[in-house]
Amino acid sequence: MSEKKILEERSLILNRRSFLGKTALGVGGVALASLLGNSFFRKSPKGLLTADEGPAGVKGILDSLHHPAKIKRVIYLFQSGGPSQLELFDYKPLLNQRRGEDLPESIRNGQRLTGMTSGQDKFPLVGSQFGFQQHGKNGTWISDLLPYTAKMADDICIIKSMYTEAINHDPAVTFFQTGSQQPGRPSIGSWLSYGLGSENENLPAFTVLLSRGSGRPNGQPLYTRLWGNGFLHSLHQGVQFRAAKDPVLYLNDPKGMTKEGKRAMLDQIAALNDRHFQESGDPEIQSRIAQYEMAYRMQTSVPEVINTDNEPDYIYKMYGADAKIPGTYAANCLLARRLAEQDVRFIQLYHMGWDQHDNLPGAIAKQAKDVDQASAALVADLKQRGMLEDTLVIWGGEFGRTNYSQGVLTDTNYGRDHHPRSFSIWMAGGGIKPGIVYGQTDDFGYNITQNPVHVHDFQATLLHQLGIDHEKLVYKYQGRRFRLTDVDGHVVKDILT
What NCBIfam families does UniProt report for this protein, alphabetically (predicted)? Predict the structure, then answer.
């Protein structure tokens, strides 16, 4: 059943209420049925309503996939702030050889700069202070800052030729997450929820986890619109899981409310909303009812999935000591694996702190330590459970960093400004060729010389792995047909198995 059909079903509940009010399920049961797109239900041992037959969850707008899917889910480890590719993945010894020399104009070629370095008289080249070693069967260069990532060199595909038009954080992050530098568009997870729906009746299709790094603890903020539904129904917005007593806001009942009382309240709210819908015809009202029902079921499912007490000691050792501290990157990576096991379709992690305009050597060492072990552990954990083959893991930020120093270059210290023209990300699992490096930059690490990959190419490839043609997943709004990749994007077939 399509999303449209699911929402239309809600309008029929008033006609059924006289009958269903006499049954054990009541209006809330129909609200649940309409959300899930199923007709007949039974109670599980835990008291949850489940389908007697067929897959549980909400079906999306697509009646069928455009082509066979390689993956079922995505875990996106977004490194907010712009990690320096020159300290992590793009080894450029020439920059150390020519340290302190001015960036040749023939290399920069008049490229746009941010207001933070456009006023500099000189652009002194600076290489990484950290060593690089070759790893894996193909001798992939990876920084000594990432020893755990280096050990999985044969499992990941490093793309060194990413580029974007955005040069400042907010439009750049928004571009990656929504396909537009301007706010207001649906995020990737919302598009997937809209197109494919959910495979789990008790958890949302799109979840969000946030952590703050030690490299720059008070760095660039993130806005909730980054995981918003834009012009899609609010049913498709991301649900943030917090490191707090109440991990999902407004989910728990106030003291004194019983389950029976909550069920009766939801039935009454559904009846009022139904009446409002009959008067206005606003489909968002139906989405609101569906969200109430999802929240009701999440009261049981969320505590179960976030409770990691039953994880064995070797798992905590794999992810690192921080995995036992809620809200850390390591804890969120472990939670991402648990959500993936529950068939959550799109799991978005944001890790802040990569915006290192000054004191880069000290800051990036801390930041890399935050994420290195847990990122590698997540890939290894999925692999040992047989889940990596149908899960796509992505690691990367919104842009890279310049090959010249922002501000004064000293013997021990330097900073780097934003650099949208070339930067690195890595991907693992989900039909991606493992153990390869795709794309190259020049000896200065400034311009792409081979196989450029645009943001829209990245998004098109992600959708392709899920069985979606990025040009066909569209939504008509205000007279225009919108899609995640706007009017551009090509699948990067060279990195696919």
Answer: TAT_signal_seq
- CA atoms lying within 13 Å on the CB side of residue 365: 9
In the chain, % of residues over pLDDT 70: 82
Looking up residue 390, the CATH number of its domain turns out to be: 3.40.720
Whether the CA torsion 366, 308, 207, 298 is positive or negative: it is: negative
CA gap 269, 28 in Å, rounded: 10
Which residues on adjacent β-strands are paired with residue 73?
A: 391
Model confidence over 77-101: pLDDT tens digits? 999 999 999 999 999 999 999 999 9
DSSP E strands in 17-139: the ranges are: 41-43, 49-51, 73-80, 132-135
Question: What are phi and psi for residue 331, nearest 5 degrees?
Answer: -65, -35
Question: pLDDT tens-digit profile of 418-447?
Answer: 999 999 999 999 899 999 999 999 999 999
Q: Where are the alpha helices (DSSP H) in 307-449?
A: 313-319, 329-341, 360-384
Q: How far is CA 82 from the centre of its chain?
A: 15
Kindly give, in sequence order, each residue whose CB lies less than 8 Å from that of residue 1, ignoring residues fewer than 6 positions away.
9, 37, 59
Number of domains in the chain: 2
Q: Which burial class, exposed, middle or buried, applies to 256 when counting CB atoms under 10 A from its CB (0-12, 13-18, 19+)?
A: exposed
SS3 assignment, position 462 = helix
Separation CA 194–CA 5 (nearest Å): 13
Distance CA 488, CA 494 (A): 18
- Quote the tokens at residue 389: 């083959």
Predicted TM-score (pTM) of the model is: 0.84
